[in-house]
């Protein structure tokens, strides 16, 4: 009877809009049921954003976690080639970046349509803690990792002494 994946004129489904809401613990079960019934990886018709990207851009960490539990694809790309990790990196959402990197298959090396990585986006947005986390993750998980940092970049490494040239 209810078409949970039907998009409105702006291109958003009920599931995508639910990802933007603030609900109490007693209502989270309803939201999770909606996430399980619908396509958590559907893309908005105009921008190509997923519910996960929308939740991240609106600081809805509880919805991010719920979407991931329901199978949201961390590597899905929008119309510009951006991923959820890129969105979290741009906004400096350190806890969200950690959560996304902990997901099996999360690929921080994906490039958007302009050839920019999540690390480069974090650096450009001056999100130093996020950039340091991404750099550490990339270098520890890819043996032949070539740093994606420009030669004059400075990143404050967690627990390190100030800014180190990398």
UniProtKB/TrEMBL annotation:
Residues 141-156 have a biased composition (Polar residues). It holds the Pfam family Ank_2. ANK repeats lie at residues 47-79. The keyword Nuclease does not apply. Keywords: ANK repeat. GO terms for cellular component: cytoplasm; cytoskeleton. Residues 141-166 are annotated as: Disordered. Coiled coil: none annotated. One of its GO terms (biological process) is negative regulation of actin filament polymerization. The keyword Endoplasmic reticulum does not apply. This is Uncharacterized protein. It comes from Marmota marmota marmota (Alpine marmot).
